[in-house]
Write a structure and sequence with these properties.
Shape: globular
Strand order of the largest sheet: 3-5-4-10-11-12-9-13
Oligomer: single chain
Number of domains: 2
Number of strands: 14
Strand content: 25-35%
Number of helices: 8
CATH superfamily of the largest domain: FAD/NAD(P)-binding domain
CATH class of the largest domain: Alpha Beta
CATH architecture of the largest domain: 3-Layer(bba) Sandwich
């Protein structure tokens, strides 16, 4: 099979990419139920995305159930091992009150589920999957960069050490039903180092609690919390030289990436591909 554009991964970013590139082939290693039940938490943007259904919400942010301050932000960053200078992203993240848009992504996008990519041959632009071999002109990867490194031939001696090189920790998320006002998202960050949960949000009748440590009856999110790496920019540049674009937080190995950043990138790619 030969396709101009192939998308790896059918999560939130992958389906947005499919909407932007409707003729693309989209491959997903999981089964449909496994993909959709793993989409946890809140999928929001600070701007509406024209290609999606956007529901407007007011989002209230607190730290230790108080209005965020520089002191509280620093205490929180210390808890999650992100100490350092205050960034623009931090200031946006901890705005006490925000207007945001929750996106609803369609599921009926003709996705090739249960299709595991075994190898990406960058020189020949060929994918070997559990079902067939596929030729492509452009590859949009939304899978974690650590996984792409392991299945591509960009590196020869790096595959086995990728997990150490691209450091990460799984996140555990537990959910419970709770009453909350319609049109409201509440998010609280917790600084106490003795408390496993570092963030909780209340949205659409659910209370979500996130932790870097195991919680009873929690979902495990992989790779979860990702840590910055100065070499990632070079890896992404190398992949781009082979016609591979990485889109999304985990694919670009950057926890500052949000849905509106992904949309802007995909919109640009749609113009140039």
């Amino acid at each position: 099979m030969s396709k101009k554009v192939v998308i790896l991964g059918a999560g939130i970013t992958g389906r947005l990419a499919k909407i932007m590139f409707p003729e693309a082939l989209i491959l997903e290693s999981k089964k449909p139920d496994d993909v959709y039940t793993s989409e946890l938490g809140v999928c929001i943007s600070i701007v509406p995305i024209p290609e999606l259904s956007n529901n407007k919400y007011t989002r209230y942010i607190s730290i230790d159930n108080q209005k965020p301050t520089i002191e509280l932000i620093n205490k929180y960053k210390k808890k999650i091992s992100r100490e350092g200078e205050m960034s623009y992203g931090d200031m946006r993240q901890f705005e006490p009150e925000q207007i945001v848009y929750n996106q609803e992504l369609p599921k009926n996008l003709n996705i090739e589920f249960d299709t595991l990519v075994l190898n990406v041959d960058l020189d020949t632009k060929t994918l070997k999957t559990t079902k067939e071999t596929i030729k492509y002109d452009h590859l949009i990867s939304t899978i974690p960069l650590i996984n792409l490194v392991k299945i591509s031939d960009l590196f020869t001696n790096f595959k086995e050490s990728a997990s150490t090189f691209l450091m990460h920790r799984p996140i555990y998320l537990s959910r419970s039903a709770i009453a909350i006002e319609p049109g409201i998202i509440r998010e609280n960050y917790i600084t106490d180092p003795e408390t496993p949960v570092y963030r909780e949000n209340y949205f659409s009748g659910l209370k979500n609690q996130e932790s870097l440590f195991k919680l009873p009856n929690a979902f495990k999110i992989y790779p979860g919390k990702i840590y910055p790496n100065s070499y990632v920019t070079h890896i992404l540049d190398d992949l781009a030289s082979y016609g591979v674009q990485c889109a999304g937080r985990y694919a670009q190995w950057d926890n500052r990436i949000h849905l509106w950043n992904v949309y802007s990138q995909l919109k640009y790619l749609r113009e140039v591909i």
